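so the lab meeting is tmrw and i was supposed to have these ready like two days ago... anyway. pasting both below. for each one the top line is the aa sequence and the line under it is the structure tokens. i havent really looked at them closely yet so no promises
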Amino acid sequence: MTSTLKGITLKGSAELVAEFFSFGINSILYQRGIYPPETFSRVTQYDMSLQLTTDTQLKNYLTNVVSQLKEWLFDCTVQKLVLVITCLETNEVLERWQFDIECECDKSAKEISAPREKSIKSIQDEIRSVIRQITATVTFLPLLESSCAFDLLVYTDKDLEVPDKWEESGPQIIDQSEENTMGTLEIDYN
């Protein structure tokens, strides 16, 4: 059985959304067993225990992706991020974790800071809720019985120049998949 997890919608500031992605991606990689559990360490963030990779190569890769993503979020040129899990042997797409992003910024006025409309506590509550949904979703997904790899797909504006070390790819859709809709994280842009 393969699954597409769809419908986590993120609205908000580039910094907070990028930080969420870092923790969310680490959480999925840990909980789905893409990397061994001993390559993660427990940290406390958003008043909850989360796992972050200690694998140097993975850490560098995620730092580079999240850093670029933050730029694109700030420029309001990204629409979604998809974490794709594939079977190493067959290259079959097993899971697609899709995070839809709604940028609510005026591209011509991004230098001007709007007043914050939500408290940090409220934002952290929403982030906690989405990460808990990721954790809960893992409980009903089938075990990944083969060695797996992952890829991150970032959907941007069509005219955006792709960085040198990045490459374009197809959507890596799952045929006859089941979709599970999760919640929304709204962080006011500032």
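ok protien two:
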Amino acid sequence: MPKGVTDMNMQPVLEIIIDTIKNDYKDDIAIFVIMGSHLYQETHSKSDLDMYYIPKTKRGYDLASVFIIDGIGFDLWPISWERIEKIAKHEERIGSIVSEGRVVYYSSDDDLKRFNEMRALANDQSNPGHFIYRSRNQIKTVYQDLYFLDQASSISEVRYYAIQVIYGLTFALALLNQITIKRGRAKLLSEILNMPFVPDAFEEHYLKIFNSKDIKTIQEAIHHLVSSTQTLINDRWYTLIDHSFKDEAQGFYEELINNYNKIERAYHVNDKITSLYAAAEIDHEIDDIISHRGVSLDGLPNLLEAYDPSDLSKIYKRSREHQQKLVEILTLNHVKINVISDLEELKTFLNSRKGE
């Protein structure tokens, strides 16, 4: 073991790196940060030192390097200010490197101030709706890995894609709860269970992934985790959003009507491709705006079921029924539909919106 480097003592390594920055890169590196287990004093003989730095110049990137001391890997990782800002905005799941990282070197007061502004941004919880919106988008990213998980034929493939799904799910949960994942891996389950909002039976199904040797058991556990997390996010979204369904659906039909028109046009020119696309888009929009708001869709006919590539009259007829029923549902729920009969009425309508 090199002189000065002992179990759970990375101070000599830190000092060498910081001295190198001060002596050779003082105008090229803005911030140097450490993170991970050494911050929480939970290290062991093979604990690595997690760290990164923010370059100020192109030359600052020259310090980037990887090396091994006594069997422990080190990564001097450069991250640009632009990426730090994205991480602080929770566009990546590694938000804790900004919110929790410890600054052990800074080039100037302005650099430290800028970093602290990024830290404040990462810790800002003033807009829960923003976090839930990001959570809803994040969980969508797991479905690609979920597909590959279902196609997997070996236990190694299943385990690989199961972990990928867990990464995405836990990031979505962290966003939902406005909390960054600080530790991960062995500590991840306890972090999740200590969050305010946790999916149903999360611990039970999470542990199956690590305890089971059976492909089907792991696949089913992952599907439960995805389903219960999706349900929780949807429930929180519709609980938190202040807008009533009436407000949320305002303008919905005025845009959607064009899809019905596309189905009609597709029928007349025998365009089966546009017909199916337009019908699927109608279902998607209804699912996004209406289906989770507690609004009854009873009587709304199944549009995609009527698609017959050899006879587009079926889906065209169904689309007319569907359109009529959707208008009835919206009207019943007091959603105003702006139908303008002529140009004079259009002028009046636009003028009436002044000052809104």
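from a quick look at the 2nd one: The longest strand covers residues 29-35. The CA atoms of residues 54 and 312 lie 59 Å apart. will dig more after coffe
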